[in-house]
Design brief:
Number of helices: 5
Order of helices and strands: HHHHH
Number of strands: 0
Oligomer: single chain
Distance between the termini: 24 Å
Radius of gyration: 20 Å
Strand content: under 5%
C-alpha cells in the first residue's frame, strides 16, 4: 500500500469518528509528535554526552561505576519515552480505546528499574531499597496477572491463543 493510499484510508476512517473521538485522536497524535521530538532530542543529547563527554575526553573508564550508572540511566529514560509513545500509538491506531494497563505497568516498571540502576547504594538506606524491591515485585505480579488474564480472555475468544508477554512485541 502506498503512502498516498494510506493517507486516503486514514482520512476516510477519521471522517467516521465522532467529534469527541476526533478530538481524542488529535490530542493523541499531538502528544505522540511531542514525545517523538523529546526522544530525538534525548538520543541526540545522549550521543553527544557519550561521544564528547566520555569517549573523546578519555573519561570512559570501565571500572568507574558512576559513569555507567549515568549512561544507563539516560538510556532507560529514552526507553521509557519510547514505551510511552508506543502506548499512545496503540490508542491512535484505534486498536484499543484506552491505554492498556499492561503498558502503564510496563512504564512504571521501567521507571523504577531506572531509579534502581542510578541509585547510589552507599547513600541509600535499607528501607528505601526494600521499598523499591516491594514496588518492583508488586508491579511484576500485576503485569503477570494482567498478562494471564489477557491470555485466558484470548483463549476464550474464537480459539485465539495469546502469546507470551515476553515474546509478543505487539502487546
Amino acid at each position: 500500500m502506498s503512502i498516498k493510499e494510506e493517507f486516503k484510508d486514514a482520512r476516510a476512517k477519521f471522517k467516521l469518528l465522532s467529534l469527541y473521538q476526533r478530538f481524542e485522536h488529535l490530542v493523541v497524535m499531538f502528544l505522540t509528535a511531542l514525545i517523538a521530538i523529546i526522544v530525538i532530542a534525548a538520543v541526540w543529547n545522549l550521543s553527544l554526552k557519550i561521544l564528547f563527554g566520555l569517549v573523546l575526553s578519555g573519561s570512559l573508564d570501565p571500572s568507574d561505576y558512576s559513569v555507567f550508572q549515568a549512561v544507563f540511566g539516560m538510556i532507560f529514560t529514552v526507553i521509557i519515552a519510547l514505551e510511552f509513545k508506543k502506548s499512545l500509538l496503540v490508542v491512535a491506531e484505534r486498536r484499543d480505546t484506552v491505554v492498556q494497563i499492561r503498558s502503564v505497568v510496563m512504564i512504571a516498571l521501567l521507571a523504577i528499574c531506572r531509579k534502581v540502576i542510578i541509585l547510589d547504594l552507599s547513600e541509600t538506606d535499607a528501607l528505601h531499597v526494600l521499598a523499591f524491591a516491594a514496588a518492583i515485585l508488586a508491579l511484576g505480579v500485576v503485569y503477570w496477572l494482567v498478562g494471564d488474564s489477557d491470555q485466558r480472555l484470548g483463549e476464550g475468544a474464537s480459539g485465539y491463543t495469546a502469546a507470551s508477554p515476553v515474546v509478543d512485541v505487539n502487546r
